[in-house]
Write a structure and sequence with these properties.
With 189 residues, the chain is an alpha/beta fold. Helix content is 28%, strand content 23%.
Length: 189
């Protein structure tokens, strides 16, 4: 059965919202460990991460391990209704940005063209790499504007967010190369 993006978005946002904190924490730790043990982490130099909100899979362990391994960590900031990634400096405070998401100061260097991997949040993913986000298209616009062919796009979510049902997409929607959950890693291409 094919459902609209909006129906799937509402359904999976509600499931994620109702996930108990302890489950969120444990599953997030497992998903992050799966990424940290992968070639994607070991081969990356400049990592684009999201700052988690609304029970998204946490990324703090990835952030701290990347810094310890002398990798450059970048976080998204919304500038003029578009995402740009800026270097995260663990010695500086983050600020509250649009939608209440923590982000770095934009006075640091824009890292958009230096990213070799972007860990991407999503509300739901299909197993072929399609994703549904919050509906504003920020990540898809970003990937399409900078040319994403030279970077690896990793969708990070809970296993219940990885569905067999195909998500109907348009030409602007960008597929993930890999999906990672607390239970599995799916290499799409």
């Amino acid at each position: 059965m094919v459902h609209s993006k909006e129906i799937l978005r509402k359904k999976y946002l509600l499931i994620r919202k109702n996930l108990p904190y302890y489950d969120c924490y444990i599953k997030s730790m497992s998903a992050q460990q799966r990424f940290l043990g992968s070639k994607y982490f070991s081969e990356s130099k400049v990592i684009g991460l999201y700052y988690p909100i609304l029970n998204e899979v946490q990324t703090f362990q990835i952030m701290s391990q990347a810094v310890l391994n002398l990798k450059t960590v970048c976080l998204p900031t919304i500038v003029d209704e578009q995402i740009s990634f800026f270097k995260y400096d663990p010695t500086k405070s983050l600020k509250v940005g649009k939608y209440g998401i923590m982000e770095p100061e934009t006075s640091s260097e824009n890292m958009n063209h230096l990213l070799d991997i972007v860990i991407t949040p999503g509300v739901v993913f299909d197993v072929t790499g399609n994703r549904i986000g919050y509906g504003k298209g920020y990540y898809d616009k970003f990937f399409n504007s900078i040319g994403f062919q030279n970077m690896t796009l990793v969708g990070l979510g809970y296993d219940f967010q990885l569905i067999l049902e195909k998500i109907i997409c348009n030409d602007q929607d960008v597929k993930m190369n890999t999906l990672i959950s607390e239970k599995r890693m799916i290499n799409v291409n």
